């Protein structure tokens, strides 16, 4: 029997493969595509749902990682909830910590009920009233200062000294001098131990007059001082400009044991067109006791 050519048994271009062959070919293509996208999804190391591109015959989806039911929240939602809960817990912890620190620092027992602290009326005392009787300057007194200007030539010749002793010599024609504003400079007055002091005072400028010339407005004048007593008490004295007389402040009688310190806080500028008079001069300082 004559062999027939193989070409006779090959389907022509116009012939279609039967359904089994078509189905097998389709299945093989799907499997290849499934493996190809599975490898690709694995390389991405994702944990969500990877969707394949759909062709004309439809497509499928590949789940990489754990499959979740439709009712379960997505991983992104769970992550959001976990992050939200973490912030809430952190805020609560910080609030508790701050509350504890505030309570401890304020000395309040957080477990104790609120209470109002009252001070008995018997424990409330008014400040002692200033002395209102007659007074006199303490004569046994010495003075020292943190600043003293060098001697200068006087109008009538000779040298004029400005030592702190001039403050307590009883004369308004002498003075202690410190060049510049003298702000922050201190004068220390010492009286006999145990003296009952009732007031202090000073002439806040140079009260001297020479041949009818008033020197008070030419130099700086002190406007404010602070007085410190040995027992720790202190007070401020404001002074009036253009008043070359004693300006005093009275206090409750206080026995002192140590030096009384006067600190200059503020002073005026020199007189107009008196640049060469840039200095503070005080004619007198006094510590008063009862007469």
From TrEMBL:
> Does the record's keyword annotation contain Transmembrane?
yes
Spell out the InterPro entries in the cross-references.
Answer: NADase_transloc
Biased region (Basic and acidic residues) positions are 1-32
Cite the entry's keywords alphabetically.
Membrane, Transmembrane, Transmembrane helix
Q: Which Pfam families match?
A: NADase_transloc
Ranges for domain NAD glycohydrolase translocation F5/8 type C: 159-252
Residues annotated as transmembrane? 84-103
Which residue ranges does the record annotate as region Disordered? 1-40
**What is the name listed in the Swiss-Prot or TrEMBL entry for this protein?**
NAD glycohydrolase translocation F5/8 type C domain-containing protein
Record the organism: Cutibacterium granulosum DSM 20700
């Amino acid at each position: 029997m004559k062999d027939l050519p193989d070409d006779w048994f090959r389907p022509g271009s116009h012939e279609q493969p039967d359904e089994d062959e078509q189905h097998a070919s389709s299945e093989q293509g799907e499997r290849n595509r499934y493996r190809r996208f599975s490898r690709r999804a694995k390389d991405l190391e994702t944990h969500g749902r990877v969707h394949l591109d759909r062709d004309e015959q439809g497509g499928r989806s590949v789940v990489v990682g754990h499959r979740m039911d439709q009712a379960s929240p997505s991983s992104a939602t769970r992550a959001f909830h976990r992050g939200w809960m973490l912030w809430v817990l952190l805020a609560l912890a910080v609030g508790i910590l701050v509350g504890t620190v505030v309570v401890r620092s304020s000395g309040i027992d957080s477990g104790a009920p609120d209470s109002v602290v009252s001070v008995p009326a018997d424990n409330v005392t008014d400040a002692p009233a200033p002395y209102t009787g007659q007074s006199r300057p303490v004569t046994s007194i010495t003075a020292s200062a943190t600043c003293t200007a060098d001697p200068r030539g006087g109008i009538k010749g000779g040298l004029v000294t400005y030592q702190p002793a001039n403050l307590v010599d009883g004369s308004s024609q002498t003075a202690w001098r410190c060049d510049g504003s003298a702000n922050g400079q201190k004068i220390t007055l010492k009286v006999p131990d145990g003296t009952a002091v009732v007031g202090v005072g000073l002439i806040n400028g140079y009260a001297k007059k020479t041949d009818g010339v008033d020197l008070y407005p030419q130099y700086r004048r002190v406007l404010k001082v602070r007085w410190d007593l040995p027992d720790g008490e202190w007070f401020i004295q404001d002074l009036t400009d253009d008043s070359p007389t004693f300006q005093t402040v009275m206090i409750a009688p206080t026995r002192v044991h140590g030096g009384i310190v006067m600190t200059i806080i503020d002073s005026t500028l020199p007189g107009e067109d008196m640049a060469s008079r840039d200095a503070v001069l005080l004619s007198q300082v006094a510590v008063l006791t009862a007469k």
